[in-house]
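Sequence in, structure out. First:
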Amino acid sequence: MKKPKITGSNRRYLFVFILFVLAVSVFAVFGDKGLLDAYRLKSELSQINGYNAKLQGINTELTEEISLLENDKRYIAFIARKELGMIGRDEILYKFEE
């Protein structure tokens, strides 16, 4: 069995085919929506998911605090003392001079 002989026109087609495959490969890796872009987007998605999880935790804490403020009188009194400096009816405030 003989090897097929590569003629001038066949070489040209082979060369064009190889260039075409290289060009497609370059665009697949570096082009818009290529492999590098997909890797960057995957990394960005991971960061966004982490940020969303953090926000979900904050939302849960705020929802619990809203529930306490709506339903728990002791918590309301605690917040009034802590943030507003208020005292209860049966409490006495002593101020000492230095």
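Second:
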Amino acid sequence: MKIDITDDGAVSVCGTDMEKMDEAVEMIQTIVTDFAEGQVFAGKVVSIKEFGAFIEFAPGKEGMVHISRIAKERINKVEDVLHLGDEVKVVCLGKDKMGRMSFSIKDCAQN
């Protein structure tokens, strides 16, 4: 597979394995998306802190789920619900005051 990016920002994906090309296009679209409130993502727990968990929702892109947004009921410790490597579905709440992505697990319809 080959991915080319021109000087004007156009991206082309070429290859013989359609499934792999589709995966590459999906990753590229996720990376360049302007993330908006209400978007739902699947992500992986990459860091756990006392105040919440950091979720990688795209290659090299992370956002935080505050402890109050992890479960509908009150939890005492993040580790009571989440563990490193867990795959979770999150809904984007927008950017926080510092410009970082903020997410919620409890407000996302889990399938």
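Remark: The mean pLDDT is 88.
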